[in-house]
## 1
Amino acid sequence: MKLGAFEIYPVNDGTMYLDGGAVFGIVPRILWEKDYPPDEKNRIPLSLHCPLIVTRRYKILIDTGVGTKHNEKFCQIYGIRKESNLLKSLHHFGYEPKDIDLVINTHLHFDHAGGNTALSETGKIVPTFPKARYFVQKGEMEAAIHSNERTRASYLTENFLPLDSPQYLSLVDEDIVEVDKGVTLIKTGGHTQHHQGVKIESEGHVAFFLGDLIPTAAHLRYPYISGYDLFPLETLKNKKEILKQAFEEHWLLIFQHDIKVHMGYLKKGNERFEIEEVR
């Protein structure tokens, strides 16, 4: 779709399955299962949206999905489906890895940074996008390298340590930084301490990529906060602030994990925010 002078492509890395109770935190299953019916293992499907933003200067990919380096056991645990994948999706829209100029990681969990790297023909792990600069919050990189018992399973070093070179990696040490005219990284915290969203502005139009701050349309409801969030009260605070501004200024919101709704505008209904989908 067009956003002012920019173009946004719905690039996708397939789907994965996570425990519904973990995805919806303290919200009882009887409430969330109406819209997200779980499988026999209590898992729900989550899409892996990785939008491509084409500006006047750059082709910018936001997150890279789970990638293709995982073994069969890993794929079974997380229900990873690969009818499509990131590179096939890019190719569908006429782009190849060498065309990508910037990669933005909202954070470094394996379902957001797994496609940062790939296996070469010789079996070496190399950057998937050879000409791109990868933008990551400095604090997020430090948290990923120095993980703990709670976070270790989410951070796979082969997704980010091969990028640890000035040729590829740009560490962001600010809460707000513009990486291209109209494309701004905004630290939101909540899910991880240094999680960042992406604000996209062109010719008076604004879109905001929510990442895991609000992973699905259901999470627009204030109590719906993922059990994976390390700082849930920060999620709540920043969710309220961003949704208020998005509603008042008519932002297009882009969801990362919603299997049904890719993007849309907020509307008020039943005393809470709902989404009016844009296809």
## 2
Amino acid sequence: MIDYKADIVEYLKSEIAVIQKLDAEAINDALNLLDQTRLNRKRVYVFGNGGSAATASHMQNDFNKGVSEWIEPKFRFQCLNDNIATVMAIANDISYDEIFRFQLKGQLDPGDVVLAISGSGNSKNVIRAVEYARSLGNQIIGVTGFDGGKLRQLSDISLHVPVASMQITEDVHMLFDHLMMSMFYEKLCIKKYSEK
């Protein structure tokens, strides 16, 4: 039997230290941009690779159902990872580097927001989609770790996790999701929730 306790404590200490360094102002800015996008009845396109794809899908659920159950107008999140047939067709017929940009072409409207997730901040397919969105004037919320990479530089609002650990980075990316969801519950949903 292996005793993991010391390592568990060290991991948790590292995570707490990172959480204490997060930029609350940037999170506040992201909340306001997302809510304004909702009020304007525009879309939020969210995407990423690997664990970030799972986070993107989770965010779509939390905003489109979790928060939107209680408010009008509702959030309009669209996760570009969730149609596997489309993703695989683009990857096979064109390039994996195009799986997000291709889906945005002809879909992205003025006022739509791109919420791009990349632990390294340098995923080629994420960067290509972000550069395309920026060329059209759409705003970018970049969710990153490590040094933030190119995505951090391209973002209008940067939700950055300052740590060289993909595991803690992805933990905190989910914290961003649930924190923002909780803020919207408190500010937008609490009255309607209590009346139901």
## 3
Amino acid sequence: MKFIIQRDKLVQGVQDVMKAVSSRTTIPILTGIKIVAHTEGVTLTGSDSDISIESFIPAEEDGKEFVEIVQAGSVVLTAKFFSEIVKKLPMEIVEIEVGNHHSTIIRSGKAEFSLNGLDAEEYPLLPQIEEDNIFKIPTDLLKAMIRQTVFAVSTSETRPILTGVNWKLENGELICIATDSHRLALRKAMINSENQSYYNAVIPGKSLSELSKILDDTSEPIEIVITENQVLFKAKNLLFFSRLLDGNYPDTSRLIPSDSKTNLTLNSKEFLQAIDRASLLAKEARNNVVKLSTLTDGMIEVSSNSPEIGKVSEEIQAEEVVGEELKISFSAKYVMDALKALEGTEIHVNFTGAMRPFVIRTKDDDSMLQLILPVRTY
């Protein structure tokens, strides 16, 4: 195998597939990147058997030449060294040549590296996915939906299903739900689905986070294929496979209260900053608890008290306070995460009592919802 390639294209492709390469793997060849040169261009693959990423660098695109294929072929190179070498090569043009026993020469300018490669035939094949049911979603909308839900997945392996985001597609509406059993994030959107298929899958939060980092902020559609145990995201020159989590996601619909006793309308930024300040003294405490109390004349108080450090209280003017008086305690981190995920300047917070979950929504937008369980403080 021998080809000559633009360095920046190679660097980008390697960075993308590196997101799937794990140093801790039971299959030694998966610590490498598979490189295949063929007449159309160069394909790079990285995988840790949960996530697999394939990045394609076309020989030419829009009249520009990126790769010159001298001889087709394939090799697997240690990802750790190959990615570092490629980043630090001196010139814009890189030549890669594989000799006997997969020994690979990487040349750029006056620099020349020789790396021991492995046989690409040994590299596991990517999942074969029947592309019967494809639906499309604009890339920027997909990134927004991931950002607004993925932070709420569980980081604990005690209930593995909660480390994923539940994706449900029915009647052309995609609903994404994440919960760690203390909070819940929900985001829904109408999408373009060619057939009225129904899906209910749980995608690992880690996979979605990595996918989001790779995707560009464009309105170009990304194709999504969900099968029994895999999901495939197809963007331009990029394939991203992830396994799905096994098991049934809990029915979260009954967690979301339909009525409320106290409703606040607040400026999102003011509320976030007040909680941020109150949490400064609460961080030392075990669970970073902040209290909210309704006062008269549409004022609310955000406060926190750490006996060994001190206390803080701040009043903010709500735009509207309707319903019963309320005193409630909650995790500052959870509420701040929720507020950062919501878009818009005004939010509605609906409470059904001091011990019941409360809901935060953006005003005039019912496509997003954040639900948080309060903390008992005695």
## 4
Amino acid sequence: MNTLQCARRSISRRLTPARIFILSFALMILIGAFLLWMSFASSGYRLSFVDALFTSASAVCVTGLASIDIGKDLSFTGQVITLMLFQIGGLGIITFSVVLFGLMGRGISFKGREIVQSAFLHTPRSDFFVVVKGVIKFTFIIEAVGTILLFVRFSQDFPLASAFFHALYNAVSAFNNCGYSLFSDSLIAYQGDWIVNLTVMGLIVLGGIGFIVQYEIIGWCRGFTRKLSLHSKIVLLTSGILILSGAVLFYFFEMDNILKGMPWQRQMLASFFQSITPRTAGFNTVDIGRLMNDTILVMILLMFIGASPGSTGGGIKTTSFALLLLMIWNRMKGSHHVNVMNRQIPREILERTIAIIFASAFIVGLVTSVLLFFCVEGDLTPDRSRHFFVEYLFETVSAFGTVGLSMGVTPKLNDIQKLAIVLMMFAGRVGPLTLAFSWYSEGKKEIKYAEESIMVG
């Protein structure tokens, strides 16, 4: 065996599925950053590399935070680049590669199969390639329907070519839960528009529940599947409860503030839209910076929970939140197991859930601290600069949940703060545990020591 073959085998052993998954996103971000950094991507002054990197990371990680005005600062070419980035980022470059190789009749590597299955499926399936093809097909069909519906509305405000591009851009962005929009005020101008609101909300929900849930629902509706899996039931039930409770709380907290004076139909639309969009979408139909503190807290919690596993969104995921509540409830009843819908949840899944939640909370606190530490407050006194804590916490959780909502501080961040948010978006998209596991080599023996009890609680 020659040196080259030895090197290839060594690299292959080191490139675990987790590392390949992470490197694919990192490579896409760097490619996108260099493309957006070029003069042809901007409509005026050339973007700084930090802004190009921030924009690319936000698109690939389907976050939607923007340090520039996408509709004004980027040229048509630059806008198309971001469109491609959040489309590829939403589904994953590995997914496209697997489908392409499959259609070409080429074999799919074990690592590629493992990456795609972990991204879309809760349990391994022999027909996973059929599922992945169904995911791609369903994605393009839903995005096409969303584009048509938005085009019908936007054609009343723009020339046909411009209306189509606005419709396509917002539809793809909404389904991939990105939140990038060509409008400077997001969708505030369409606050009371039923077509725009219902279309965007529908796209966000469909993109956020997870591809395997979409696949099971379609199979159930067509009679191919007798019943939904426990995973799909928990996702749909938790998502419905979060959307409804979020809308109710938003309405009661804002009825005498930002909703005051609106017709009741517009109040309902705004309440449900602002309840759905923190589920990793990033669009908004009201000024987030003017919301009450109570509402900000609710939105931070919704952003931290995020979307569902196997979707384009981030956060700790709806299933993790549901399992945490179930663990607390079962422990209060004195049960050592977590039972739900006549099923018992494996202990390994419960341990992973706890690790995900606490790792996520830790990294959110760490990045928020970095933003505060590098904040240039000028001559402001501590009491007058207190608002930075809430704004930076909101920004950090938004980045972690790959949401894209902001209280207006994103363009004001300095380069160090922007880089911290880039890392936060990246960690939120690939997952904090996946990022941590990628540092450790597989196959190491686990040493087990003697047990000794300690006091807790």
